[in-house]
């Protein structure tokens, strides 16, 4: 289990400061929610941690090591996007296997790991389907399986439930939390839904206009505002 620390992380697009000296300490194994209104910089911060955006100031420490400037594939970080970004022409099995094929994992190990990942998300019977033959919740589980199969040290979730209807969202929230507890992966969960953050997170940060306004447990932030 690894920690994630942001030290004075700043980012501007042109003259627009999107992140202003963000300092965050995320503990090993923690389920950490990043809450804030649309446009507050949540996705931008997540993409910086993932290494997708190289233009950054300050320091990003993962497991105590400075990963500033390291490319995504050297960070051992898994990210799940809002729209899942599954390959429509590939089967569920091949979607989940993709990251392992890229990493040249040998066949026997690949089969074992893809099988285990699909089992973890309850989709063992769906390997030969295509994404458009699945429900929204099932597609969400494929996206999760595809990410956990690479055994990331840190799991980044960018509004992963926002495309689901309310009932499914509440159900998937519980599934996600149970999965995170089982795997123990340090997890950063981005949402603009306060209830979602409060019902899942060990701790949360409230971001507004690129500034971290508050950090604490849901109880500390909302029982005594
Ligand atoms: P959130 O995830 O909280 O909705 P974002 O991180 O997506 O917020 O965006 C924060 C701000 O940065 C917004 O004002 C957005 O318009 C701006 N922004 C995001 N990406 C870019 C980009 N590639 N170029 C210019 N501005 C951007
Ligand atoms: P080979 O190349 O030896 O025929 P692969 O391992 O490449 O076998 O698998 C071929 C296809 O079969 C894959 O694209 C995948 O869709 C599917 N597949 C392989 N193993 C499984 C499995 N255990 N469950 C579901 N689908 C599988």
UniProtKB/TrEMBL annotation:
TM regions (residue ranges): none
Molecular function GO terms recorded: ABC-type maltose transporter activity; ATP binding; ATP hydrolysis activity
Coiled-coil segments on the chain, per record: none
Ranges for domain ABC transporter: 4-225
Keywords: ATP-binding, Cell membrane, Membrane, Nucleotide-binding, Transport
GO cellular component: ATP-binding cassette (ABC) transporter complex, substrate-binding subunit-containing; maltose transport complex
Name the UniProt record assigns to this protein: ABC transporter ATP-binding protein
Residues of the full protein shown: 3 to 227 of 366
